[in-house]
Amino acid sequence: GLKTQLARAKLQALKMQLQPHFLFNALNTISSTLQTDPPAADRMLAELGDFLRLTLEHADRATVSLAEEIHFNRCYLDIQRHRFEDRLVVDITVEPGLERAAVPYLVLQPLVENAIRHGISQRVEAGEVRIEAYREGEALVLEVFNTGPDLRAGGDGAFSTGIGLATTRSRLQQQYGDKASFQLEEEVDGVRARVRLPLSWHASTSDSPTEPLNA
Hints:
Low-confidence stretches: 153-161, 205-210
Oligomer: single chain
Number of helices: 5
Structural class: alpha+beta
């Protein structure tokens, strides 16, 4: 009906808001590297091309499997590793059996992006970005933790008000209503972003990556 069509149109508009935002930030990262390490910038451009190919292949889907979502974020983190080198430590832990769980397309990417922008890039020493996925009753919980300054360090809660996180909140509300939630929490040594959504299973996983999810 008309209500369903309007809901789908709104969700598509939110996704289109996220994608140019990500591309702009990724190109900024490459641009800043171009002056100091041209070979690294060249590798990052190639990886960005691969990442964009992956995301465009799934642009018309509201959800992907958790395995695919983790793969997208590995590609993104590979780009960032060239920028930060040994200053960026990545850890990914997915509870076994959740590979086929359905998640909103690119739901993790803005959380990881904000973790790097407001956490890792503010540190001189090495920092960690940790992605975790686990089951909690009938819910799927996705967490992104980063070491770094607290929420106030960016000024006026900059971490929590970026376009990527605002879009994440809107997408969750649009797709799941009150059945999903999104929180940012300060911890002793960093910040944790947590998404909780109803656990469901993705219909097709024939194109899911076969590489291990945990690393």
